[in-house]
Amino acid sequence: LKEFLPQSYLKVKGIEKKIFADHKKHIGLSELDAKVLYTKTARSLSTYGVTFFLVKEKMKGKNKLVPRLLGVTKDSVLRLDEKTKEILKTWPLTTVRRWGASPNTFTLDFGDYSDQYYCVQTTEAEQILQLIAGYIDIILKKQKAKDHFGIEGDEGSTMVEDSVSPLKATIMQHETSNIGKGNVEAVSVAIPAVIRAGGD
């Protein structure tokens, strides 16, 4: 079991029986089907796609620091129990108003969403800051695209069109034809337009 399980699961009572029981349910699956099922199961976990940082936070009413996990996802900040990995608190990134890092601490301000700052002790404050700033930048860019174009703002759905001055138009063809009683001039003009579809 040491080869396959994380250290924290090795001492869980009855873990080997649970593994064999689950194994029996999946006997006969092809390798590809097993990999698809594994991926679906992993993606369904509440902590899928979370970057974790081991931090210490001050206990309420005491001058004692306790270990916690601080998780950062593409749309939220999570506070988790260090041992059980249970999510204790979730803050949407859209509620973050300010954040700051020092060599030993990281602080989040959620504005009106929370009545106090969330401050933790960590040596990875700069990494947390860069990750949160990057995700917030992506959220703001998507919001700007949504507000500007009135579309969903999803990646890959943005279309940008730059206007080009008529002076830069190129005459492709010039024809004169007789239609009915008068002469009609038809001019085909190609106006170079720069259109970029897709997202980053």
TrEMBL record:
The record's annotation in SMART domains points to: IRS
Biological process per Gene Ontology, one example term: actin cytoskeleton organization
Every FERM domain range:
1-143
This entry's Gene Ontology molecular function terms read:
integrin binding
Give an example GO cellular component term for this record: cytoplasm
InterPro entries associated with the record: FERM/acyl-CoA-bd_prot_sf (IPR014352), FERM_2 (IPR035963), FERM_central (IPR019748), FERM_domain (IPR000299), IRS_PTB (IPR002404), PH-like_dom_sf (IPR011993)
Span of the signal peptide: none
Q: Name one Pfam family in it.
A: IRS
Q: What is this protein called?
A: Talin-2-like
